[in-house]
Amino acid sequence: MTRIRTPIAEELGLEVPLFAFSKAPAVVAAVSRAGGMGVLGAVAYTVDQLREALDFIDAHVDGKPYGVDVVMPAKYVDGGAGHDAPLDPGKLEAMISPRHRAFIEDLLARHEVPALPEGENAWHNLLAWTEQTTRPQVELALSRPIKLLANALGPPPKDIVDKAHAKGVKVAALTGAPAHAKKHIENGVDIIVAQGTEAGGHCGEISTRVLVPEIVDAVGPDVPVLAAGGIGCGRQVAAAMALGAQGAWTGSVWLTCAESDLHPLVVNKLLAAGSRDTVRSRALTGKPARQLKTPWSQAWDDPAGPGALPMPLQFMLTADATSRIHRFAGQPGNRAEELLTSPVGQIVGRMNQVRPVAEIMSELVRELEDSIRRMTAATR
Ligand SMILES: Cc1cc2nc3c(=O)[nH]c(=O)nc-3n(C[C@H](O)[C@H](O)[C@H](O)COP(=O)(O)O)c2cc1C
């Protein structure tokens, strides 16, 4: 494979400056084997499940560099405990109004989604989304041969940055605004992921093409910036590098690859969706996140409704409902499938077939090379 050299790719030992965020261990291992860096999203894992996922990656990554991503928000509801005192889930549950609970039951009833059968448990409703619940994930991740620790929301706490650095692990942080990027650097973060509004998941309002040069200029030439949001082909990676980024951080494009572990009906929805079928909504986590436009997001965005709750309460409120929707979607006698959703970016319009990671990577690199060659030729 051709080597695409940027300072951060060299430093991390990558063949190509392409980072792939995914919750699927098989995707992470495959992208790293293919010369990029797979980054495992830990948010939806219990510590035991995360241990299993990391065992899988360590067994299948052929010693190639990979990373772990956590969601440790700077701002969230902690029930008055403070960010460094134990959380009281009961106190948080009490902050969820009966109106919100009734609203969800009504939404499920209108789509004939049954309750979970006796003995079946809903997904854990407070896995991450707070510093207290994410710290054990970080401890575990730092006990593995990771090369990168990334945080989704805000500057990671200084002690965690120091712990990672003590293990020779680079720290990255996502941001949608230049001011936040500077704060990250002050907190010891090494790599800035400039995430534009096109991105799947939590995102700001500024587009990637506008945001990346602003952040590159704000943090200076010595800080590696990765562009994120709306990148799913080689030309878009080339564009990111032309904007001053040292590489691309991608997420959505891996949701429909062969190694993805997403619900098959969600995959079908993504394959059928166009770039106008996403919306930035608080419906999933309480913070603005780009996702498929569905009756779920429309219900939560409806001004007549109670509105989404702040993080982590929205996930606590909806975890049971989401489990039921996933459990019954596609079965006769209900319309749960309509409520099935996923965070996804505007790049979804390009995700039209299921292909293995290796094929997506080699096509991406080929097109990136062509773009670089074409632009270089333009100067001759
Ligand atoms: C399904 C999904 C879940 C995501 N969850 C997280 C997360 O837990 N942590 C995080 O840092 N970013 C998360 N992201 C954002 C990605 O890391 C990445 O920045 C984004 O997908 C890039 O834009 P793109 O979707 O246009 O490729 C998520 C993205 C998607 C699509």
Can you characterise this structure?
This protein folds into two domains: 7-77 and 127-255 and 356-377, Alpha-Beta Barrel (TIM Barrel); 89-123 and 261-339, no CATH class. The protein is built from 15 helices and eleven strands. It has helices at 7-12, 25-33, 47-60, 89-94, 98-110, 131-142, 158-166, 178-186, 208-219, 234-242, 264-272, 295-301, 313-328, 336-339, 357-377; strands spanning 18-22, 37-41, 66-70, 148-151, 170-175, 191-195, 201-202, 225-228, 247-250, 278-281, 289-292. Helix 2 (25-33) links the parallel strand 1 (18-22) and strand 2. It is globular and about 65 Å long. It starts with 6 loop residues before the first helix and ends with a helix. Flavin mononucleotide binds at residues 21, 41, 43, 69, 71, 150, 152, 174, 195, 198-201, 228-231, 249-253, 255, 342-345, 347.
Brief synopsis:
With 380 residues, the chain is an alpha/beta fold. It contains 15 helices and 11 strands.
Mean pLDDT: 95
- Which sequence of strands runs across the widest sheet? 1-2-3-4-5-6-8-9
What would the CATH topology of the largest domain be? TIM Barrel
Instruction: List the bound ligands.
Output: flavin mononucleotide
List the main descriptive attributes of the protein structure presented here:
380 residues; alpha/beta; TIM Barrel; 2 domains; eight-stranded parallel β-barrel; three-stranded antiparallel beta sheet; 15 helices; 13% strand; binds flavin mononucleotide
